[in-house]
Amino acid sequence: MPPGPSIVVLPQPPGLPEPLPEPDAQTLRLETVLGTLNDPLRLTIVRKLLLERAEFDHPCGWFGLDRPKSSLTHHFRALREAGVLRQRQYGLERRSEVRIDDLRERFPGLLELVAAWTPET
């Protein structure tokens, strides 16, 4: 089987704000993570962060999603509460990153499946 797309891993810069509340890595549950990733928009958000990120974390506007802000807030919160994303508050802006190390440790191969997924057009 040929290798899938490469997941972009960037080093954590110094001086980051503390993350918003999230579940501990040891308590992440596969059924919760999969249930959250069941939504194609959420899957798209995670895939884009895995494959296209240019900075350590990104604001909602970077994703280019044509959805109301309240809808996007809901999706990002669901991903954070499931333990898929880590979010930090920068003033009025929240920036997101995938919890790559935590998810790889708990669910080996899951992120590679997400990265290999092809969205319907």
From TrEMBL:
Residues 32-112 form the HTH arsR-type domain. Transmembrane segments: none annotated. InterPro entries: HTH_ArsR_DNA-bd_dom (IPR001845), WH-like_DNA-bd_sf (IPR036388), WH_DNA-bd_sf (IPR036390). SUPFAM superfamilies: Winged helix' DNA-binding domain. This is Helix-turn-helix domain-containing protein.
